[in-house]
Every structure is written in C-alpha cells, then in structure tokens.
Write a structure and sequence with these properties.
The protein has helices at residues 40-50, 61-78, 80-86, 107-116, 118-128, 214-226, 247-261, 272-284, 288-296, 312-327, 348-356, 367-384, 392-401, 406-423, 429-441, 450-461, 465-468, 475-491, 496-502, 508-522, 526-540, and strands at residues 91-95, 99-104, 134-139, 153-156, 173-176, 186-190, 193-198, 237-240, 267-271, 300-304, 331-336, 358-361. The chain is of the alpha/beta class and 543 residues long.
Length: 543
C-alpha cells in the first residue's frame, strides 16, 4: 500500500513497546513531553534511517490522498520542528475501514510516538478517515521495497569466516557509522582438545575494580602472572558469586593474559557442560585415555559453572583430572555460583582440595561501583563513536534502578547507544526511562519450545532424539524422556495430550505419570533438583 509520512497512535488502543535483540531498544509508554522544537537535523537523520517508498500492499488513490492530508494536518498541528524530528520516518500503510496503519523503522520511534503523540495522530486521521476508530503503528521489515540505505551508514555483509550462528542469512545489514564491531569469539585448544568460547572483550583492562571484587581481581592477576613460574602463592583459585558479577570475566581475563605473557602456554578454558560433553564423546569413541592424556599437557585449567558438573562417571573423571593437575604443580582456576562447602555432590577429598587454595567471593555491586562500570562502558563506546555521550543524570538513573548485575548495566548502555546511533539526539531522562523500562520490571523470558527440550535432553543424557520419541522402555531412555515431559509441562503452555504427541504419540496419562514421577523424586533428591535447574538454564541460555 502507498506509504506517506504520518503521525501518532491512540495510546489507549495500542500495546506498549518491546525490545530489539542483541543490544537493541526496549520501550513502553513514557511520561508525555511538550512539543518543544528539537531541531530539523535530528529529523533528517531519523528520516534517513528508514527511507521513504512503498513497502506495503496496494491502496486506492483515495486512501493515498487521505494519507497525504493526514500528514499536512499533523505538520500544522505539531509544528515543523516536532514533525521533522519524529514523523519523517513514519509511513502510511493502509486503512481498512476502522483502523489506520502506519509503520516506522525502529521500536524506539514506535514506542515514543505511541507514548507522546497518539491523540494528535488519531485526531488528524479522523478528519480524513471519518470511520477511523483506532491507529496501529508497526515496525517496517528491513530490506523491504523502498528501503533506502541510511545517510551515514554503510552496507555490509558478514564475512564467510565468521563464527557459525543459528540465525539465517537475511542479506545485507545496515550498520550506522560508529557502530562498534563485535569481536569474534575464540576458543582455547590443547592437542586438538577444543575449549569453550573466550570473549576478547573480557580482559583485565575492561574489568572494573571495586570493594566488592578487589580480592578476587588481585588473585586472578597473580595467577596470570605466575602460571609459568616455578612456585605459586596459592593453587587452586576458587571464585564464587551470584550471576553477572564477573566470575566469567575474570576467567577469560586470566586466559587472555596468560597467552599474552606466554604465547606457548597450554591454556584450557571449559564450562562444566563442555567438560561433560567432551568426556561423554570420549566414552562413546571408546578412547577415555586420550581424554586424560590431553589434560596432562596443559599449564592452566579454568573451569566455569562447577555447580553443573554432575553425572557419576563425569564427577569421578573431574576429580581425577583436578588431582592429577594439582599434584603435578599445574594451575587450576574454578568458578561457581556456590562456595565449595555448598556444592553437595563434591566428595570430601575434592572439597578439601578446592578449599586449600584461595577461595574468594565477588560481592554485590554497590552504587559507586555501578557508576564506575557505567562510566567505563560509555568510554568504551566513545572509543568507536566519539560523539556518543550520556549526561550525568541518566547515568545516575541507571545506577539507581539497575542493581542486579554488571551484565544488566552493560545491556542498558548498549541499548542507549543503539538509540543514539539512529536518532542522533541527546539521550534525556525521558528517553532513558523508556529504553530501560523492561530491564527495571524484568525481561520477558525466552519462549521455550518442546523441540528445544528434546534437543537439550538428547545432548545432556547422550540419548538420541529418535530414542526419546521411540517406544523403547530401557531406563537409559525412559528416565530422560520423563524429565523431558516434566520440563515440557513446566516450561511450555502445551497440554498433556500435545506433549504426549510430541514425545512419540503417547497418551496423556503417560505424560501425567512422568510428571508425578519426577515430582515425587524431587522432594528427597537434591541432585535431581540441581540437574533440573541446569537443564532450565541451558534451555533459557542455549550454548
């Protein structure tokens, strides 16, 4: 349908905003602001983001002319400055007899228009479309007909050598000038044994030190400096804390620093999940000795998420590996959400060995540390985009409202920088509150599908998907299947008959039996409870 620049939406009839993934923009309704001029240059930049042109279906000439008149009325009602700032990218799409539809290129603009100018747009639309009852403002699909390359942006395609992802190739991407390039992840390797991914951003230089993490940071630096030395002050180093406080950052920083100081050093970083996966693969190939031999070659082993190391054979192998390394004078670093004494599955000997070195906790982030982290992340963005800045009152808002983790703070800066790249206007308190609203209220969890559960259960228990949905009744298959059914009921909205159908055409009574079986075991089986917690984590944040 023919598009044209339009106005706003009826806030009472339009849902609030959402989130652009990967450091995008989150929104919702914000307090209304006045129609103060903001400047035509901002409007020109916003206009360049979307272009003008047809991206919808076909509308009659009457609708096209009506849309043009809505634009004229809106410009007269709001003034040239406001119209140029907020509505140059809003395009008319259609009128179906009751609903007038418009589109915009980014969620932030959609949310802002809905929050601040909905009554104005509806009033103007009703003058041209007498039967109009509501307004809809939706996102334009990228790459649609009439989509133009933004001014100040370059068209780029991901190189063929990038790390594989689960996302489909959607063609050229538009990247504003100044957008930081996401560094590629790397993996440690020892004798062909591949470790878990290392993030090149996680270095000691980018780690912000405060009262809550000073001891852990000092211990990590000392480990990195003495890995290749004849003697060490402590071994192992054990770091524990809640989620998002810097455990993984410090482990990655140690790995990068060791390789910088001693490029020939044999460094291996593994999550507990990766360790178990590699061990199970070695058992399947009937070559467990090669698995053991590879650990004998390393200078430092870094293990993340120890609380998820389970499985009787896996735990025994982990005990053997750690004991061999410590007895041989090799450095070990472990990170976990719990202190050694709080991990029930550890045997007394392993618990004692882990507590023999330095055990240190990363505490919660106080206000001053949160402010320092925010300032550091802004400086990192400014290195790639010097024109980007955030006023002090916005930083104070973030530090006051976001106190769960460093990841939350970094995510807020990413979103605000993304907003700045597209609208090129000062980030005010109103804009910041709109962008971080869902972070304050809690981010909507990832939607989990039964297919995801089958995949994770298959990988976790080493059972094929075909076995899970087959009629096999061996315990090695029945137990994982029952756990999968239980998780499907807990984490999806599917009915018992639908779950049974997806697990090989089983009756709903079979599903109900599996759920009750798992629930009965949970009351007295702490190991099962931990295992289910791990599976839920894997489903929410797939590896």
């Amino acid at each position: 349908m023919h598009r044209m620049d339009g106005g706003t939406a009826n806030g009472g009839k339009i849902g609030t905003g959402g989130t652009i993934g990967g450091g995008g923009i989150a929104g919702g309704n914000a307090a209304s602001v006045g129609n103060a001029p903001i400047g035509n240059s901002v409007g020109n930049v916003v206009s360049a983001v979307s272009g003008g042109g047809n991206t919808g279906g076909v509308a009659g000439n009457g609708d096209q002319q009506g849309g043009q008149r809505v634009r004229t009325l809106l410009r007269a009602r709001l003034g040239e400055d406001v119209f140029s700032t907020w509505f140059n990218t809003l395009e008319f799409e259609s009128f179906d007899g009751t609903t007038v539809r418009f589109t915009v290129p980014v969620k932030f603009l959609r949310n802002w228009i809905q929050s601040h100018y909905s009554d104005d747009l509806l009033a103007c639309a009703k003058k041209e479309f007498a039967a109009a009852e509501r307004i809809e403002v939706t996102l334009r699909q990228p790459g649609g007909i009439g989509q133009r390359t933004p001014a100040g942006a370059v068209e780029t395609r991901a190189p063929a050598t990038q790390v594989e992802t689960d996302q489909p190739d959607v063609g050229p991407r538009l990247m504003p000038v100044g957008a930081p390039v996401q560094p590629a992840l790397a993996r440690t390797q020892v004798g062909g044994f591949e470790g878990s991914p290392l993030d090149p951003r996680y270095t000691f230089d980018s780690f912000v030190v405060g009262t809550a993490n000073r001891l852990a940071h000092a211990g990590a630096i000392q480990v990195a400096e003495t890995v290749m030395a004849d003697s060490r002050s402590f071994n192992p180093l054990y770091i524990h804390s809640s989620v998002g406080l810097g455990k993984t950052h410090l482990l990655h920083a140690i790995a990068w620093e060791v390789k910088r100081r001693a490029p020939a050093a044999q460094v291996l970083y593994l999550t507990a999940e990766r360790f178990r996966y590699q061990f199970v693969e070695a058992l399947r190939s009937s070559d467990p000795m090669s698995f053991k031999d590879k650990f004998r070659q390393i200078n430092i082993l870094l293990i993340d998420d120890l609380e998820f190391m389970h499985g009787e054979k896996t735990e025994l192998e982990f005990d053997h590996v750690i004991n061999t390394l410590l007895d041989g004078g090799r450095q070990v670093v472990v990170a976990s959400a719990r202190a050694p004494g709080q991990i029930e599955r550890l045997n007394e000997r392993m618990r004692s060995r882990l507590q023999r070195g330095l055990v240190t906790e990363l505490g919660g982030l106080d206000y001053d540390l949160r402010m320092t982290i925010l300032e550091k992340r802004v400086q990192e963005r400014q290195a790639a985009d010097p024109s980007f800045s955030l006023p002090r009152d916005v930083l104070e808002l973030l530090a006051d409202k976001l106190h769960e983790s460093g990841r939350e703070l970094e995510g807020a800066i990413t979103r605000l920088h993304h907003t700045w790249q597209y609208v090129r206007m000062p980030i005010t308190l109103d804009i910041a509150e709109t962008v971080i609203r869902d972070l304050v209220q809690g981010i909507e969890p990832r939607r989990i599908k039964i297919e995801d559960i089958l995949r994770i259960i298959s990988r976790h228990f080493g059972v094929s998907k075909s076995d899970l949905i087959s009629q096999r009744r061996h315990r090695s298959v029945v137990w994982p299947r029952q756990i999968g059914m239980y998780l499907a009921k807990q984490l999806t909205a599917r009915s018992l008959p639908e779950i049974g159908r997806r697990f090989g055409g089983r009756d709903h009574t079979t599903v109900l039996h599996a759920i009750r079986k798992i629930e009965g075991e949970l009351s007295a089986n702490n190991r099962l409870r931990d295992e289910l917690d791990e599976l839920k984590k894997l489903l929410s944040h797939p590896m």
